[in-house]
Write a sequence for this structure.
């Protein structure tokens, strides 16, 4: 299951750099996880300073 980024995202980009497969990109209002590319490793969760990333 892919991780999801909530509306608490502050668009800092910290999560994008932690993803080992490049599944995170900047969206219009927040960063987004591409569910087809996400390997569900959880690395992005630890990289988010506001805790906006969680399991689906």
């Amino acid at each position: 299951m892919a991780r999801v980024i909530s509306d608490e995202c502050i668009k800092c980009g910290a999560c994008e750099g932690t993803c080992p497969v490049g599944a995170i990109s900047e969206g219009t209002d927040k960063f987004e996880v591409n569910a087809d590319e996400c390997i569900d490793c959880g690395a992005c969760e630890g990289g988010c300073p506001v805790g906006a990333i969680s399991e689906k």
Q: What stands out?
A: The chain has a mean pLDDT of 96. Residues 14-18 form the longest helix (5 residues). The radius of gyration is 9 Å.
